[in-house]
Amino acid sequence: MDAVFKALADASRRELLDRLRAENGQTLGELCARLDMTRQAVSKHLVILEEANLVATVRRGREKLHYLNPVPIHEIAERWIGKFERGRLQALSDMKQALEARDE
Amino acid sequence: MSDKPKFVYVTYIRTTCEKLWRALTEPELTRQYWAGTWQESDWKVGSPWRIMIPDGRVGDSGEIVECEPYRRLVLTWRNEFIPELRDEGHSRLSYLLEQQGDMVKLTLTHDIDRPQSKLIEAVSNGWPAILASVKSLLETGEPLEATRRWPAGT
C-alpha cells in the first residue's frame, strides 16, 4: 500500500494514469508521443507504477502494452469507505459533477 | 478475439495457486465473495460452464476453452439475464495464476470481438470489486462487505 501512495504522489505519474484511462493498452512509444517528458523519464515512471501494481502490462509480439490497473485503488477505497458511506459519497460526487458541469 | 485486450486487471494475493484456483472455481467459496453466485462446470476443455444467481437464474454461460489447473483458465462468457447484453454474444475471460514468492499474481482479461460493448463495460466495472474481495477472503478469511450478496433488484 505504501508503494501505491508513493506512486500516486507525483503529478507526472498521475498524468500517465490519466493517459491510460483515456486510452488503455498503449506502448511506451505511444505514451511518449503525447507527453512532454523524455522517453527515459516516462520509462522510469512506468516502472514505479508497475511496481505499485497501478499499471499492468501484457506482451504483444515485441511490444509491451500498458494498462491502467484499478484493483489496488479499489482495495484502498474498500478499506476506508464503509458500506454505509458509499451511497452518500456517490450522491455527493454526482452532485459535485453536476454542479461543476453547469459552470463550464 | 483482438490481440489487444480492452483491459488487464492484476492483483497480488498472499496465497498459493491451488488455494486461489479453488477460490475462483468452487461454489462454497465463490458464494462468499462473488455476490452469492456459484459456477457449474466439470472444468474440462469443451465442457459447458455457467454462473448461477442465488434466486435460481443463470447469470452467464459459455464453455471451457483452456484449463490448466492452478495455472490458466480461459472460458467463453455470454450474459444470460440482461437481453441487451445477451445479444452481444460470447466474450472471453482468461485467468492466469503465477506464484511469485509468497504471493500469487492473478492476471485477468475479459474481451469481446466488437468495438463498443456494454458487456465489457459492465464487467470492467465489476471485476475490481470481485478481485479485491477474493484477495480479502484469502488473506483475512473475510470477503468485502460490498460483494457478499447479490444486489437487490438486479
Q: What key phrases describe this protein's structure?
A:
heterodimer, A: 104 residues, mainly alpha, Arc Repressor Mutant, subunit A, 2 domains, two-stranded antiparallel ribbon, 6 helices, B: 154 residues, alpha+beta, Alpha-D-Glucose-1,6-Bisphosphate, Chain A, domain 4, seven-stranded antiparallel sheet, 4 helices, 28% helix
**Which spans of chain A of ≥5 residues are poorly predicted at pLDDT below 50?**
none
Class per helix and strand makeup of chain A: mainly alpha
* Broad shape of chain A: globular
Oligomer category: heterodimer
Say how many strands of chain A there are.
Answer: 2
Looking at CATH, the homologous superfamily of the largest domain in chain A is Winged helix-like DNA-binding domain superfamily/Winged helix DNA-binding domain
State mean pLDDT of chain A (0 to 100 scale). 88
Beta-strand content estimate of chain A = 5-15%
Order of helices and strands of chain A: HHHHEEHH
The H/E string of chain B reads EHHEEEEHEEH
Number of helices of chain A: 6
Number of E strands of chain B: 7
Largest sheet strand order of chain A:
1-2
Q: Radius of gyration of chain A, rounded?
A: 16 Å
Largest sheet: number of strands, sense, barrel closure of chain A: 2 strands, antiparallel
Count of domains of chain B: 1
| CATH topology title of the largest domain in chain A | Arc Repressor Mutant, subunit A
Percent strand of chain B equals 25-35%
What's the topology here?
The complex is a heterodimer of chains A (104) and B (154).
Chain A: H1 2-8, H2 11-22, H3 28-33, H4 39-51, E1 55-60, E2 63-68, H5 71-80, H6 83-103
Antiparallel strand pairs in A: 1-2
Helix pairs in contact in A: 1-4
Chain B: E1 8-13, H1 17-25, H2 27-33, E2 38-40, E3 48-52, E4 58-68, E5 72-79, H3 83-86, E6 91-100, E7 103-111, H4 118-140
Antiparallel strand pairs in B: 1-7, 2-3, 3-4, 4-5, 5-6, 6-7
